[in-house]
Specification:
Helices cover 55% and strands 19% of the residues.
């Protein structure tokens, strides 16, 4: 779901909005309450992030080991 933002606010806060879009947020820019444009993260940026994450995982392969107990603990913490 995107956040609505007026065109004036979009203009004056563009650097902040772009940082938020880079982190995955979406915005609908309005003019006098009417939706005009959608500002969404770029698919190519997401693709690059995915590729970097995959490369990082491949580089770590075999360098680190973690026990089954540690994995279970991390999983249970994530469910809180």
């Amino acid at each position: 779901m995107s956040t609505e933002i007026g065109s004036y606010d979009a203009k004056t806060k563009l650097p902040e909005i772009l940082r938020r879009v880079e982190k995955g947020e979406s915005f609908t820019i309005t003019n006098r309450g009417r939706p005009i444009a959608d500002l969404v993260p770029s698919r190519s940026a997401q693709s690059q992030q995915t590729k970097r994450a995959i490369n990082n995982i491949r580089e770590m392969d075999g360098k680190y080991t973690i026990s089954d107990d540690a994995i279970s603990e991390l999983k249970s913490r994530g469910r809180r």
